[in-house]
Amino acid sequence: MTPTKWVRSWNERLPRIPLDLIQVTAAEAAALVRNHDADAALLRLPIDQTGLHAIPLYSETTVVVVPKDHVVTAVEEVTAEDLADELMLHPLDNTLDWAGPPGRQLDDRPATTAEAVELVAAGVGLLVVPQSLARLHHRRDLTYRPLVDAPESRVALSWPEEETTDLMEQFIGIVRGRTVNSTRGPAPAKSPANSPAKSPAKSPAKNQQRGARAPQSGKGRKPRRRS
């Protein structure tokens, strides 16, 4: 994802209110929002949504990261069965809601995706991640292939349930790509119950009909015959 473009849009629309980005691990993000140490977070679903709103933004393909000389690079996509004999790496920060292909696993799991990528490059095993993480940790000696029978990874924007303020609505609109004119704002004030809105005054009926009758002047009349 590219949060810098959201910050740029925010600064254009709300230049007097600063928006700061902080980077945390996937495991820390939800707790950070619940504890009000951050106003919102970008998370991978599913999560424990207790006390949180979460709106899905998009889904991305799940891929397997492999060395460039690995046998699976001969095909365009792979299945979990194709990886049954491989040693699979499951970093602790991987939030994919999937047990992974039925391959062998390391007893000592790598702490981060970055560490797991280093192990793939060393020929230790293979790694299943969302496609954006494969791109983020790109190396010249590694590549990836779509894993067709793995679920897609869903990215969501999350914030506390009680904090759906006008500013949060502004940020939601920016993240979802709304324009300035379509971004949700405060609800318009309602007219008092005893003061209904007035409709434009209509012209009097006699004015609308003016000119419809024939003139009643004496011109053009036949003179009366006198006896």
From TrEMBL:
It comes from Kribbella alba. InterPro entries: LysR_subst-bd. Pfam families: LysR_substrate. Residues 186-207 have a biased composition (Low complexity). It comes from the Bacteria. Keywords: DNA-binding, Transcription, Transcription regulation. Coiled coil: none annotated. This is LysR substrate-binding domain-containing protein. Gene3D superfamilies: 3.40.190.290, Periplasmic binding protein-like II (3.40.190.10). The keyword DNA-binding applies. Belongs to the LysR transcriptional regulatory family. Residues 179-227 are annotated as: Disordered. Residues 5-177 form the LysR substrate-binding domain. The keyword Oxidoreductase does not apply.
